[in-house]
Amino acid sequence: MIELVFVIAIIGVISLMIAPIFQHNNLRYAADQLVSHIRYTQHLAMMDNKFVPSESMSNMPTGSNTACNKRGANNKKKCNAKFWYLGRWQIKFSNEWYSIMSDSANSSYDGNPNASNIRIEVAKDFIDTDKYLIGSNASYFFSERKPERVNENLNLNSRYGIKKVLISGGTNSSAKRVIFDNLGRPYRGDTKLSNSGYLKNSIDGLATTRITIVLCNTSNCSDKNATIAIEPETGYVHVI
Questions:
Q1: Would you list the domain boundaries of the chain?
Q2: Interior angle at CA 45, CA 180 and CA 216, nearest 5
């Protein structure tokens, strides 16, 4: 009996020591998932190869998408093509959840991961093809709300307990988006046409320094964190 009590006591002490390690592993699990999804976003950008080289399209007069709508059908198409670079594949963070999306002229480049029965701007989940790579339901993602299409794993707060996501580097942009071009190079900027910021043309927003994404266990990021780095030019993604 004494030996049994002694063994139970040892197991209890060991479990107390190991518990925090398992708790902090959630950071690593979240980081590993995010690295995989960033690489997938880069893959989509390279495969989709969004690029409009025609000067007749890219040199259209400056104007908003509203201005494009006032033109004839053919000129409207050319005017929309001027903003083709806003449709590159990106990973967009909204607080502690994120989505993988490609904006389009059909939604006037509003910067949101829109979805309807006509067009869906969000990437499909490559593991569960009934779902999409968006972590929370929203009015612009199917106006009739289809929570069964949402992948809850992309909600870093509810899935892994992440309290805050910090993004820095790349450019002077403060946008919480990482965008990739047809060569796999990373950008930072807002793809919303009315607030495109550092994405004023097809080359603006290109990362010149390392982009870092910090996942925090606490809202003030005072506890242990996990940091993901995206290198400029190559777009190489890794945990540091």
A1: 27-239
A2: 50
Lowest-confidence range among 61-65, 103-107, 160-164, 184-188? 61-65
**Residue 115 φ then ψ, to 5°:** -155, 135
Average pLDDT in the 188-198 region? 82
pLDDT tens digits for 197-215? 678 888 899 999 999 999 9
Residue linked to tokens 């904006």:
103
- Give the separation between CA 57 and CA 27, rounded to whole angstroms: 45
CB burial of residue 6 (10 Å; 0-12, 13-18, 19+)? exposed
Cβ-in-10-Å burial (0-12, 13-18, 19+) of 113 comes to: buried
Alpha-carbon 22 to chain mean position: 26
Please compute, for residue 232, the number of CA atoms within 13 A of its CA located in the half-sphere on the CB side. Answer: 11
Distance CA 20, CA 16 (A): 8
The closest alpha carbon to 31, from 228, 229, 231, 235, belongs to 228
Write down the mean pLDDT value for the chain.
83
